[in-house]
Structure prediction request, 200 residues.
Amino acid sequence: MILSTCRDSAGIISNRLNRILWPYKPEDTANNNRNVYISKLRPILECIGDITVNCQNRFWSINFGESVQCDYVEARRLLEEELDETGIAHLLELLLSGMMLPNMEQDWVDDFKNEFSTLTIDFLTKQLQRKDLSSETLLKICDTVFQHDFLNEDALKVKCRVLYGQGKVGLAKSAYDSFCKEYTSSLGMEYPTSLKQIVS
Prediction:
């Protein structure tokens, strides 16, 4: 419900929710199960804070009040805004904890994971072009991009240039060598740009 509500405020339609949670149950049994579990879920959420589960026109949604923060909802909100360095730092705090639902391998969630990774990569790659961000923030952005796309050349170039500019030549070379190893392993060819070309 959280993922669907973030994508579309209407939420997720009942029969899709049933198919995800009880794919082999008859419709009436799935409806019964859903109603029972949501009835049990509501008081649990109330113990956490201002979280409401709503059903309108057979669409289920979940909403968070001001007293409750959901990291995914907050990250999605920030990815759609123009952020200053403080805002980017807050976003990175949420994103640096790792990939979304890393241990969940189900077909229905893959689309959400891919969408979130694409949004993250697109947003952060644009931030790498900014001149008003500190070296520390740029390095954190690079590391976060690599979590979603370990062969991202924009992140490699910025990371190597920042480290080289700080006099951390060994760290720049280590980052470059690690990238080249992954590049060759994944694509079966050597990375065509030298470290010297990147930092010059």
User: Anything to note?
Assistant: Residues 139 and 159 are 6 Å apart (CA to CA). The mean pLDDT is 93. The chain is about 65% helix and 5% strand. The first helix runs from residue 2 to 7.
